[in-house]
Amino acid sequence: MTSRESTNRPGIASSAGDSRSLDVGGGAAASRRALIATGAGAGLAVAGAGLAYAGGLASADRPVGGAGPAAGAAGGGEDLSAAVPFRGVRQAGIITPAQDRMHFVALDVVPGTTRAELAGMFKAWTKATERMTLGAEAAPGGVAGGNPLAAPKDTGEAMGLPASGLTVTVGFGPSFFDDRFGLADRRPEGLTELPAFRLDDLDPARSGGDICLQACAHDPQVAVHAIRNLIRLGFGKISVRWSQLGFGRTSSTSTTQATPRNLFGFKDGTNNLKAEEPELLDQHVWVQPADLAGVPGSSWFAGGSYLVSRRIRMHIEVWDSTNLQEQDATFGRRKGKGEPMGQKDEFDAPDFDKLGADGQPAIPRTSHVFLAHEKQLHGIRILRRGYNFTDGTDGLGRLDAGLFFVAFMRDAHKQFVPMQQALAAKDALNEYIVHNGSALFACPPGVAENEPEDYWARSLLSE
Amino acid sequence: MRTRATIALLTPVLVLGLGACTQAKSAAGTAITVDAKDDSCTLSVSETTTGDREFKITNNGTKVTEFYVITEEGMVVSEVENLTPGMTRSLFVKIKKPGNYEGNCKPGMVGDGITAALKVTGEAISTATDPKLHEAAQTYQKWVATEADELLAKTTEFVAAVKAKDVEKAKSLYAVARAPWERIEPVAESFGDLDPAIDGREDVIAEGLEFTGFHRLEKDLWVDGLQADSDAIADRLLADVTTIVTRAKSVELDGLQIANGAKELLDEMATGKITGEEDRYSHTDLFDFAANWEGSKKGVEVLRPVLDSKKAEFLADYDKAAATLDELIAKQKKGDGYALYDSVSKADIQALSDALTAVSEQVGKIGAALAQQ
Looking at the structure, do residues B149 and B199 belong to the same domain, yes or no? Predict the structure, then answer.
């Protein structure tokens, strides 16, 4: 927009359009949104290049101030409207700083669908997702630019909204590698169903699935739009098994983010792995080629990560009437600032040997922090990326709410399983929660940056 | 669709790149070249004529770009996407009407893109009606007439059983009489005044209407027992159906209406039948579901020769989805009819629903395909 050719030809009513740059932060000094903000006199704070599609709608059809959480919510300089690159060595949505909202869906493949048809669907998904993550329509002219006698290719509810940090992450469940698609010899060794844990009350209708799609964005409408349009592209090949909406991230995955709170009101994920720790990520999150040596056909998974999801229902009303001292003792942190018991600040390391005034360990041995800490788990760590959820009420007048736990790791059976076994056995929190959904997925590496024809999981699905 | 005017006001510097054109008008047969850069979109001509035109687009920028040909009304005539830097591709467009078109490059795939005006002169290309389409409409109307006769015959039997107080017989004829109605429902429904009287559910009372027709008798037969006015309701049903049948046999439909009808039947299945709402007392929803499906299939069947001649690619997807739905419906067959809704497992209902959605997505493409020249 700064260096526009001025072969201006007066008299031809035409818009020059807006040359918002794809490379966020590069050249596009005056973005559409900045112009609109000036023109409309509205106080819209814009940092960097806002990537609204079909620009102009933001001012004409939608009040500027109502353009979703992007407006004004950025806080510490984070531009919540900007795009997150779709392509790369890793899939986005894993170490991407956790966005505020999530729409997660688990899909089963419809009987009779072939591998070639699935590859076709993944190609279409890749194309549409790349567009949507830029803030563009799922297909060119998708909302209202198509044939008036055809159903629009894009469902339209994200028209005029910025990219909003949308990421979509795909994964494959153990069932995907049965005999249906000839992929049994490509199943990574670690992709086997999770064992049953004590106190689980799993609902099959909220568990498992052949394929998962995790859409995260700072605007729920953008996340839901992405999932809706991708499901539509898969009609006839996939069937929705279950889905989960999440609001309010419950983990920080970057040192730039403040620690959020879960629905128990506690800071959660203080000690999470962070994007800024590449060596730790290689050690705990990314699947290494050597991990796959036992099954040569599973080499497609190198650079990917396992995703464990658990729908953890919280007994909210029971918790709310529990006294503060017991709440603190249950977590092993103080509710106010989030510091480990016996310490001063949130990020102080917990001291498990320190005794309290009563001569007992300051951090109880049954507390969540104690049991989930790497010190008690032989150095095991995971990247947590969960969301709070509220699915209305449970028919008994109580909130059907809790934590949709999502975590990424290098080997679920060596990381999540021992961790959860320890928690299921002793965690004081068990009195207030129940796990009623569970799934494991293998998320492949990213879509190659310099190969326009590359698509999600190509090396898995290609013949 | 887009508020281009706003943008034009805010960004008064236009990039049209037309000033340097030596050749201002394209001759038929010569490709119009498009020089797409990150900040400009330059066509080799500013004017052309109606007819088949080739646009040869070269991405001379650094970002992946797209090129659109757009009408004055903002409708995309044709587009080419995913042009990587350095790539040249041809786009063939049949421009049917004269007017002020736009070429639009979209570097980076987002935003309004960069527009270059393209004036099109010459005669509009007439779009003669495909004789195959006329034939399709004739075939469909004949079929509607047959179904209408069937509707009258079966409704007569059903009404007779109700009036003979033969509840068991009337129950066995209820779903059978409704089947031809459900097959031609969009045609029947187009006579708005009689539809609620014949097929309205108890909720019509809320709209200030009287609860009559099939569903009132369904409630009598399955729930309340025959009432003092059941005979009168039965007589009125037969009279209303007789009127509908006469009208349905004289209706004239075009291809688009048949296509829309095929889609409407699927919509009925998705909103009323798969939910068990339609036949809430008798639970014979799957009879209606199957009949709606037969009607929808008939519409596609008669349009198929027209679609084939237009090389409609989605037909392969339609056939696959339709075969799946056929199979799933066949699985619910029981004797001469279908399993009762409340006896079907949730998993089976979801499978039917998934297959239906898949079919629907393809049927939604027929209208546009018919309009394609």
Answer: yes
A203-245 pLDDT, tens digit per residue, is: 999 999 999 999 999 999 999 999 999 999 999 999 999 999 9
Instruction: Nearest chain A residue to B357 by CA: give it.
Output: A235
Asked whether residue B229 falls in the same domain as residue B136, the answer is yes
Q: Do A35 and B117 touch (CB under 8 A)?
A: no
φ, ψ for residue A12 (rounded to 5)? -100, 110
Is the Cβ pair A20, B19 closer than 8 Å? no
A6 touching B (Cβ < 8 Å): yes
How far is the CA of A139 from the CAs of A107, A220, B78, B113, in angstroms? 22, 20, 13, 15
Domain limits at B9?
Answer: 4-121
Q: Which of residues 249-308 of A touch B (CB under 8 A)?
A: none
Residues from chain B that touch A32, judged by Cβ atoms under 8 A, are 7, 111
> How many whole angstroms separate alpha carbon B134 and alpha carbon B144?
15
CA distances to A73, A106, A353, B266 from A301, rounded to whole Å, are 37, 19, 41, 41
Helix (H, G, I), strand (E, B) or coil at B222: helix
Same domain, B110 and B143: no
Residues B102 and B8 in one domain: yes
- Give B 103-162 residues with CB within 8 A of chain A: 104, 106-117
Q: Is B301 on the interface with A (CB under 8 A)?
A: no
Most B CBs within 10 Å: which of A6, A7, A9, A19, as the mutation test of the B interface?
A19
Residues B47 and B141 in one domain: no
Task: Give CA B255 to chain center in angstroms.
Answer: 11
SS3 B31: coil
Q: Taking the CA atoms of B208, B213, B215 and B219 in sequence, report the sign of the dihedral they define.
A: positive
Give the number of domains in chain B.
2
Where is average pLDDT lowest: A74-78, B20-24, B267-271? B20-24
CA gyration radius for chain B?
A: 28
**B112-131 pLDDT per residue, tens:** 889 999 999 998 887 666 78
Q: Which residues contact B269 (CB under 8 A, 6 or more apart)?
A: B289, B292, B293, B296, B356
φ/ψ of residue B277, rounded to 5: -85, -35
